[in-house]
Amino acid sequence: MTLLSLELSECYCLFANRTKQYCGVSPRASALSETYHCLPAHETSTSLHSVRAVGRLLRKSWFWAWLDTVCQYRRSRIGPFWETVNVLVTIGGLTLVYSAIFGGNLIAHIGYIGAGIIIWSAINAIITEGCQTFLRYRTLITTTNIDVEVYVARTVLRIFITFAHHLVIYILGITLRIVPLSWTSLLSLLGIALLFANGFWAVTVLAFICARFRDVQLIVRNLLQLAFFVTPVFWDYRQVATDHHFIFDFNILFHFLQIIREPLLGNVPSAESYLVVIAVTGVGSALAFLLRRRMQPKLAFFV
After folding, report:
1. N-term to C-term CA, the chain
2. What is the residue range of 125's domain?
């Protein structure tokens, strides 16, 4: 009972009592039985090769991610939309400053900057939350045999839930005719899928490294602040001189921005951006696999 009380706070009880039955049993019983028994460490290497096991992992992780969101914003009037308000204020402030310095039409800038800030918020969250994933769940890691993929998926899906709330800003932009809506916009769904698919290996790599070397988290945080200004999040890369295009051409984060932002603005992303993202997905997944294979047996000692 002590172990469960560490993971499940009072808000879980409130959430569970208001939730319908989960897979034929109570939500609490189902979630606990799946988390603590469905994916033991000694079976994971074989069970995750099946689509059914992956589906069960995502379903379980989604439940915990949703619960994390409910608990984090308990007793809040608008919940995760506070993060959306923060993003909206940032968009407004940067648009005003950019228009005042570089000139141009305010309406023309707000769509570009708004899409960039929304996407960057997800990228920023994946990196920063990834560094803290195993440290946040250190109690469960040291006392249970839950597979690490549950913690990784739980983190990524929690970020996705918050990101989905930010899409309200895009819907507002469509309503006010600030951004266009066309069939090209559907390509953004592919970009979002690729972004969060990469989130799984990114969180895995950062979680292992930051659990082993605590100073890396602070280094990543500082580099991320620099990356925000180097990456064309709010400044227009098309205004950069041709001989300086290397600033963003070799920036991986720029290509992740492009495959989502360009469709949202009614444009088709370049094939180069898709190729870079796919290549990063393959290399990153291989790195995560090797790192997990090497460091997972000692993870309990790292945290």
Report:
1. 22
2. 78-302
Query: Which of 45, 60, 75 is the last residue before a domain boundary?
Result: 75
User: Between 51 and 25, whose confidence is greater?
Assistant: 51
Return contacts of 88-91, CB within 8 angstroms, 24+ apart. Answer: 88/169, 90/117, 91/117, 91/118, 91/169
Contact 120, 231 (CB under 8 A): yes
Measured at the CA of 176, the angle between CA 173 and CA 180, to 5 degrees, comes to: 60
Pairs from 8-15 (Cβ < 8 Å, separation ≥ 24): 9/71, 11/70, 11/71, 11/74, 12/67, 12/71, 14/74, 15/67, 15/70, 15/71
207 residue type, one letter: A
DSSP designation for 20: P
pLDDT digits (tens, 9 = 90+) for 103-136: 777 777 888 999 999 999 999 999 999 999 999 8
